[in-house]
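Case study.
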Amino acid sequence: MVSIQPLASGGPYNVMASLIIRFSDGMAQILAVAEAEVRKLIHDPLELITRAIQPVLWLGVFGQVMGKLRGIPAGNLSYEDFLAPGILAQSVTFIAIFYGIAAIWERDSGVLTKYLVSPAPRWTLVLGKAMGSGVRSLTQAVIVFVLAMLLGVHVRLEIASMAGLAAFCLLGAAIFSTFSLIIACIVQTRERFMGIGQLLTMPLFFASNAIYPLQLMPEWLRLIARANPLTYLVDAMRALMCVGAGSSYGLSTDFTILALVLLVLTGVAARIYPAILR
Amino acid sequence: MAQIPSIETRQLTRRFGARLAVDNLDLQVAAGEIFGLLGPNGAGKTTTIRMLTTLLQPTSGDARVAGFDLRHEAFEVRRHIGYVPQMLSADPELTGYENLLLFSKLYRVPASERKPRIAEALDFMQITDSANKLVRHYSGGMIRRLEIAQSLVNRPDILFLDEPTVGLDPTGRHSVWERLQALWKKWNTTILMTTHYMDEAEALCHRVAFIQLGRIMELGTPAELKAKLGPGATLDDVFIHLSGSEQQEADGFHSTIGERRSIQRHG
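After joint prediction, the assembly is written out as follows.
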């Protein structure tokens, strides 16, 4: 039989012990779901290459031209340096924000039904998918990072900062794929999701510090940008990726805000995940 | 175990808006029994299965599945059941082996037992040779057998099968029947299945219930139901007699769509 123990009622120690078992089971279930996502990626990596085209255009064309204009003040950074972490964050989040399509496909193909009938708690399924999405995004991050380096962006090549960058990649992808899952549960169909997805990505991108600093924005837009998780992701990534860049809010503040956003989104997604079946 | 019914529902009811999909259903399935739910599209078969597998909350009434309360012990219910939905739903982007591995981990099968159990399930369902191929390249019958294998890795007490052979060619159907019978003989698993095919019900089910508009119209062994209608009657005759002209009227849009999807996916 399976190893999950029912929650015992005999005393606080038993309750504690079974909670620990549930937690470690949950971690294993998250990893199982994420592992399956990675295996799919290995079977069919073509998507990753096609996905990399857009960030290549942003960095290779937009960044190069705008850098020559010197129209956007980027503090002590060159515009190319300023832009690269923004494009990295963008490519990480945009691949994640279309995860909802996969969720709807899983519903339509019946795969999801079997997940939901398994004893894996909903939150483990949500976080497992988020983590799978994070790994997918990491591959994008590597491509953008290498490209930035080739284009002469002054990237930090220390192990610690690169590990930190990877951690923020995972966190950012997890947030936006979970957000995407929630949207999918609400809108239900692929067509509606595509519409909403297109509608969301550009404002998210423009109402953030990805391609220009917050100081350039009108007050109302700055307020929106401050509420946009992408802003904190870019802020952390900029500090971790570029030589001479600092974080406006502090890495621990960025991390705390993003982790809290993920926590809330996971709670909401776990609650409404089964609703996608109707 | 043998004394307690595997599944017991009491006035189980589900409404979708004004429509009553399942209407005060009282049902008992004994441990080790293969029980069939028959009836026209929209009769409430799939809704019943979705409630019993915890996918759908009942509007009223309650049920015990594998000894656990459906409403308050959904987690325990899930640990003790296997479910093969109507659609062919193994993940086509993974290999057969990977599909089984994923679910063995979700069901927390101990690490040391995973490999032998997966190997046994693959062997039992006769798909060992294709275990490392992507499921995308499987035939419909193979996918179905893989899905049954998947639901076996955690050794469930009860197996729910929603139209297990819909959309399969005759070879695929017979291979699924034959493996299901072998499975039942080996593990004596309680099976609750729905089907539209009366030959399937006769080949597999110990008892069947005909449902119509969410209610049980008749219940008994296939032989009993045929005998009731008269000498020489087939189960098809019983079906037509019981569902009568109401069949078209009761046709559920969603169940028809569901069937179309599963047929489309693998031809």
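Observations recorded in class. Residues 159 and 210 of chain A are 24 Å apart (CA to CA). The radius of gyration of chain A is 20 Å. We will return to this complex in the next lecture.
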